[in-house]
Amino acid sequence: MFKIKHLIISFVAIAILGLGACKSRFEKLRLSNDVAKKYQEGIRLYNKKDYSKALILFEGLVQKYRGTAEAEDLNYYYAYTLYRLKDYTTARYKFKEFADTYPASKNAEECRYMGAYCYYLDSPKSSLDQENTYKAIDALQLFINLYPKSDRATQAAQYIANLRDKLEKKAFDNAKLYYDLGGYDVTNYKAAVVALKNAQVEFPDIRYAEEMNLLIVKAQFMYAKNSFPARQEDRFNEALDYYNEFIEAYPSSKYAKEAKQLKDDSEAGIANAKKILAEEAAMIAKYKALEESDKGNKKKKDTTNNNLDIKTQK
């Protein structure tokens, strides 16, 4: 993916240059074999913040300078040029490549950090896939492990905290989505309970903990409410257990009133479920009694008819 993005940036830069004079000074230099002059011009263009032109020259020089004394500085500028052009995907690869290739360089620590930082910049919003977010956390943590005394380690730790906040929000939003979809499928309420509890295991200090615990009570209550009466008592009792956990953890919660209503409704739900089951049991018993009575009357009638048949025969 990063190669495609990188090629697009290079293509656009060349296309822009093509709009100018057919054989501009820059074009003549680009097509020449004077690598030393190209290198000097690339640095000059970079310092002038003409990154698109600098990139074109640097890309043509990387292979030619491989293994030379100038290669280290060239690759350093090349990575930063990509970063300045906001091609973070290619830049992070080049920064990492620099740190791996030149571990003794005075710029190795900086490039290791910048590679991780580019991952951070490439982390998408919480509603999207978070693969890059996890990779950014790993890269930033690796930097901290390698350079624990670095001035950049504190900033790296803050970036990790920011990324974890994003992951927490995604976990909460995903679980809440199950709750919101419960009206379409009652099992989504149970899925919401599971997702919320899993999120709390993955993120023990999640900043949404209070709201999540209330949502667990609500989801379990809705799951019980929409269940068959025979299942309701057990499921309402689970809602009551979650309520007790919530109120114990947050006795002064701003959601206490709402939680109390869920408790009262759960208790009323249990009473109603018991009433329905008792009525059903009474109805079944009544039908069984009527059935037995019908069987008895039929048997008695059959016996009477048999006796009459016997008398008639005599």
Please outline what is shown here:
The chain is an all-alpha fold and 314 residues long. It contains 13 helices and no strands. It has helices at 2-18, 25-31, 35-47, 51-61, 71-84, 88-101, 108-121, 131-146, 151-180, 187-202, 209-225, 229-249, 256-313.
Description:
With 314 residues, this protein is mainly α. It is built from 13 helices and no strands. The protein is elongated and about 120 Å long. The protein starts with a helix and ends with a helix. The model has no long low-confidence stretch (mean pLDDT 89).
List key phrases describing it:
314 residues; mainly alpha; 13 helices
- Taking pLDDT < 50 over at least 5 consecutive residues as the criterion, the unreliable ranges are none
Helix count equals 13
Could you report the average pLDDT, rounded to the nearest whole number?
Answer: 89
- Spatial extent as radius of gyration: 37 Å
**SSE string:** HHHHHHHHHHHHH
- Secondary-structure-derived class: mainly alpha
Could you say which overall geometry the principal axes of the C-alpha atoms support?
elongated
Head-to-tail CA distance between termini: 105 Å
Strand content: under 5%
As a percent range, the share of helical residues equals over 70%
- Quantity of strands, as a count: 0
Question: How would you characterize the largest beta sheet?
Answer: none
Question: Which helices and strands occur, and which strands form pairs?
Answer:
Blueprint: H1 2-18, H2 25-31, H3 35-47, H4 51-61, H5 71-84, H6 88-101, H7 108-121, H8 131-146, H9 151-180, H10 187-202, H11 209-225, H12 229-249, H13 256-313
